[in-house]
Amino acid sequence: MDEAHLWAMIEEQGERQRLVTPGEAQAAVVLLRREGIDAADELATRIARRLSTQE
Q1: Contact criterion met (CB below 8 Å) for 39 and 5
Q2: Which sign, positive or negative, has the C-alpha torsion 16, 17, 22, 26?
Q3: Nearest Cα to 36, choosing from 3, 4, 1?
Q4: Are the CB atoms for 32 and 40 separated by under 8 Å?
Q5: Taking the chain, what is the end-to-end CA distance rounded to the nearest angstrom?
Q6: What pLDDT is stored for residue 55 in this prediction?
Q7: From CA 51, how far away is CA 26, in angstroms rounded?
Q8: Which residues have C-beta within 8 Å of that of residue 24, sequence separation ≥ 6?
Q9: pTM, full prediction
């Protein structure tokens, strides 16, 4: 899967569903930021932003 496809998936609008626990989401943020891919970093930023609003 190329980065353009990843961006398309991130930008796709749809109904939000809670799929992971807050702890799982925090771990995903850490792992995504280690990837060094712009799309992964953007996704990590979005997840982290949502986590901070839930606290």
Answers
A1: no
A2: negative
A3: 3
A4: yes
A5: 34
A6: 61
A7: 8
A8: none
A9: 0.61
Domain boundaries, the chain: 20-55
Contact status, residue 41 vs residue 30, Cβ threshold 8 Å: no
Convert the pLDDT of each residue in 2-43 to its tens digit: 878 878 878 887 787 677 788 888 888 888 888 888 888 888
The Cα 17–Cα 39 span in angstroms is: 20
* Residues 9, 10, 13, 15, CA torsion sign: positive
Amino acid at position 44, single letter: A
- How far from 17 is each of 1, 4, 14, 20, 40, CA to CA, in Å? 24, 24, 9, 9, 20
3-state secondary structure of 18: coil
Please check whether residue 10 is in contact with residue 39, taking contact to mean a CB–CB distance below 8 angstroms.
yes
Q: Which residue type, as a one-letter code, is found at position 19?
A: L
